[in-house]
Specification:
about 425 residues, Growth Hormone, Chain: A, about 0% strand, two-stranded antiparallel sheet, mainly alpha
Length: about 425
C-alpha cells in the first residue's frame, strides 16, 4: 500500500520540464502550478478520518488509489494548464485521504506486530517514489508520451494497490483487541484547566509542525526542482537529470530503513538533529557544486538527512499531554501540508529574482531550523514498550499497556478509523 502510493504520483514528476515547456511557463508560474497538488491535499485532509470511518480503511486505500491513478492520467492528457491544475487538485485531495488510510492501517499492523515498524513502512513509500522516478525518467529518455506513460503506470499500480489492500486485512479477532473503549474518549476533562493544557499542547505541537515541514521540504524540492536544477544550472543531460528525484528518494529510503535501529541506539533527538544538519550540508553541496555529479551527491545527503524527521515529529506529537489521543498526529498531518504550499512558490520567486542556484539555499536554512527544533523539542531517549507501546501477551496477541489500557495508540477503532 505504501509502495503503490509512492509510485503512482512520482512517475509524473520527471516529465515536469516537458510540461513546463509545453505550457510556456516561467519558474514562478511553474512554482504556482505545482502547488495545485498540495492545495487539494490540504483541503481534503481534514475529511480523511470521516471518510475512513464511513468507507473503511482498506476500501478507502483501494478505491482511492484507483481515483488517484485516474486523476494523474487526466493531468498527463491535459492540453490546457487549467485542466492540468484541476487534475492535480483532485489527485492531491485523494492522495491525502489515501495517505491517512494507509497510515491508520499501518498503526494497526504495528500494534499487531508489537514493535515499531512505521519507519519501514515509510521506507517502502520512498522506494516506491524512487521507482516512479525511474519509470518517468526512462519514459522520457525513450520519448514515450507522458499521457501514455501515466495511463499504463496508473492501470498497473492501481491493480497492485487493490491486491495489497486484500493482503493487508487484519483478522477481526485481532482488531477487537485493539479497540478503543468509550471511557478513553472522556479521559480529557472540560473546563479552564483543560483549556490551559490545550494551549500548552499547542505550544508543544507547533514546533513539531515546523520540524515536519522541514523534512517534507526536501521531498518537495526533489519533486519539483531537482530535474530543473540538474538540467540547467548543473548541466546534466536530460535523461540523467530525471534521476535526481530517484537519488534523493533512494537515499531517503535507506535512511528510513535504518531509522528504527538508529533511533533505538542513539535516541530520537540525536538522530533527527543529525538529520537536520545533513539536510543543510547536502543543500550547501548542491548550491556550490561546480559539476552535476556533486549536485547528485548533495541530493543524496539531503535525502538521507530528511528520512527520520517526519516519523520523529509524528511520534512526538502522539505523546503531547493535553490533547486527546491521536489528535496531535491528525493536526500535525494536516498542518504539515501547508509547507507544500510555500516551498515551491518561494523557490520559484527567489529563482526569478536571483537564480535557481541561489534559491536552493532555502533547504540549507530548513536543515538548520530542523536541527535546532530537534535538539530542543524531541526526547533524548527512545520510548520503550512499557512507556506506551503495545505489548504482546503470552500467546503473542497485542494488548494495551497498563497506562493506556482503555485504548490503542493513534486512536484506532475496530473499523480501522481514527478517533481524531
Amino acid at each position: 500500500m505504501f509502495f503503490t502510493n509512492g509510485v503512482l504520483f512520482s512517475a509524473l514528476l520527471p516529465r515536469y520540464p516537458e510540461i513546463k515547456a509545453d505550457f510556456g511557463l516561467s519558474n514562478s508560474q511553474f512554482g504556482l502550478l505545482v502547488i495545485a497538488f498540495p492545495v487539494g491535499a490540504l483541503v481534503a485532509a481534514g475529511f480523511g478520518g470521516r471518510i475512513i470511518r464511513r468507507v473503511g480503511t482498506l476500501r478507502t486505500n483501494g478505491y482511492g488509489s484507483v481515483v488517484l491513478a485516474s486523476a494523474l492520467a487526466v493531468a498527463a492528457f491535459s492540453d490546457t494548464v487549467w485542466l492540468f491544475a484541476a487534475a492535480l487538485v483532485v489527485a492531491g485531495a485523494v492522495d491525502s485521504v489515501v495517505d491517512a488510510a494507509q497510515n491508520v492501517q499501518g498503526v494497526v499492523a504495528e500494534q499487531w506486530r508489537g514493535r515499531s515498524v512505521m519507519n519501514s513502512f515509510h521506507a517502502l513509500w520512498s522506494v516506491g517514489a524512487a521507482t516512479g522516478g525511474v519509470i518517468g525518467a526512462a519514459a522520457a529518455a525513450a520519448d514515450v508520451a507522458p499521457s501514455t506513460q501515466m495511463l499504463v503506470n496508473g492501470v498497473v499500480w492501481a491493480l497492485v494497490a487493490l491486491l495489497a489492500c486484500r493482503l493487508a486485512a487484519v483478522p477481526l479477532e485481532v482488531r477487537d483487541t485493539l479497540r478503543v473503549e468509550e471511557e478513553h474518549h472522556k479521559a480529557v476533562p472540560a473546563g479552564g484547566a483543560d483549556r490551559s493544557a490545550r494551549r500548552h499542547a499547542w505550544r508543544l505541537l507547533l514546533p513539531l509542525v515546523v520540524l515536519a515541514i522541514c523534512g517534507t521540504l526536501v521531498e518537495d524540492v526533489a519533486n519539483n526542482w531537482a530535474v530543473l536544477f540538474l538540467g540547467h544550472p548543473a548541466g546534466a543531460p536530460t535523461a540523467i537529470a530525471g534521476l535526481g528525484l530517484t537519488v534523493a528518494l533512494g537515499a531517503q529510503f535507506v535512511g528510513r530503513l535504518l531509522g528504527d535501529p538508529m533511533t533505538d541506539r542513539w535516541g530520537r533527538e540525536a538522530v533527527a538533529r543529525t538529520g537536520g544538519l545533513l539536510i543543510a550540508a547536502g543543500a550547501l553541496l548542491i548550491v556550490t557544486s561546480p559539476v552535476y555529479p556533486l549536485a547528485f551527491a548533495g541530493f543524496a545527503v539531503a535525502g538521507f538527512g530528511c528520512a527520520t524527521l517526519v516519523p520523529a515529529a509524528f511520534a512526538a506529537a502522539g505523546r503531547i499531554p493535553g490533547l486527546p489521543e491521536g489528535t496531535g498526529i491528525a493536526i500535525l498531518g494536516w498542518l504539515m501540508r501547508i509547507g507544500f504550499l510555500v516551498t515551491s512558490p518561494t523557490i520559484g520567486w527567489l529563482s526569478d529574482l536571483t537564480t535557481l542556484r541561489a534559491a536552493m539555499l532555502v533547504p540549507v536554512a530548513a536543515g538548520l531550523v530542523a536541527a535546532l527544533i530537534a535538539h530542543s523539542q524531541l526526547p533524548r531517549r527512545t520510548p520503550r514498550p512499557r512507556d506506551g507501546l503495545v505489548r504482546a501477551d503470552a500467546e503473542g496477541v497485542p494488548t494495551p499497556p497498563d497506562r493506556a489500557a482503555s485504548g490503542a495508540p493513534g486512536g484506532i477503532t475496530p473499523s480501522g478509523g481514527s478517533s481524531a
